[in-house]
Amino acid sequence: MEVHGYGFGSCTKAGLAPEPRPAEAAEIHVTWEGSDNPSVVTARADGEFETDITVPSGATPGTYRVTARCTANSKLRATADFQVTPEPGPAALALDPAKGPVQTPVTTTGSGFDGCTAHRGQAGTVTLSMRVRSEDSGVRHGPGDRPFGCQRMRRLSR
């Protein structure tokens, strides 16, 4: 993830003492909560910086602190929270019945669409009922049709 910090113009090797500008910038350590392996960066003259850090592979869902700390002045620091969200489960789609003649009523049920709000606001599931018309028989995917994911499902018949 990208971390953008600002207000670190005083993070110089001279500390907070008055000095001619531009002063030599001191290191800023950006750390993930509980990590002892910081991303090391220096601020530009305007006091801003950008750096990338990686969310640890073992991070479980929850809130974690990301801290930027000036190595020359430990009082000069900033923190922000990062929310690790659960991994989405596999998406599944079922047709009931899975085959039949023209005009067969078909109910489509899907699950694993966490993060999507479906019919009546129930996240993670969707159910559609439809009747296959003769011109819609067969498997067909046109522009905008997406069988899985957090997308709108296009109804082919009424």
Q: Provide the succession of SSEs.
A: EEEEEEEEE
What's the alpha carbon Rg, rounded to whole Å?
Answer: 27 Å
List unreliable stretches of 5+ residues.
136-158
Number of helices: 0
State mean pLDDT (0 to 100 scale): 76
* Biggest pleated sheet: 4 strands, antiparallel
Shape: rod-shaped
Got a strand count?
9
Beta fraction: 35-45%
How much helicity do the residues have?
under 10%
Structural class: mainly beta
The strand order across the widest sheet is 3-2-5-6
Distance from first to last alpha carbon: 45 Å
Describe what you observe in this structure.
This protein is mainly beta and 158 residues long. 0% of the residues lie in helices and 39% in strands. The chain has strands spanning 2-5, 27-32, 39-42, 49-52, 62-70, 77-84, 92-96, 105-117, 123-131. Strand 2 and strand 3 (39-42) form a beta hairpin. It starts with a strand and ends in a 27-residue tail after the last strand.
Topology:
Elements: E1 2-5, E2 27-32, E3 39-42, E4 49-52, E5 62-70, E6 77-84, E7 92-96, E8 105-117, E9 123-131
Antiparallel strand pairs: 1-4, 2-3, 2-5, 5-6, 7-8, 8-9
Characteristics of this structure?
disordered C terminus, 158 residues, 3-stranded antiparallel sheet, 4-stranded antiparallel sheet, mainly beta
Explain briefly what this protein structure is.
The protein has 158 residues and is mainly β.
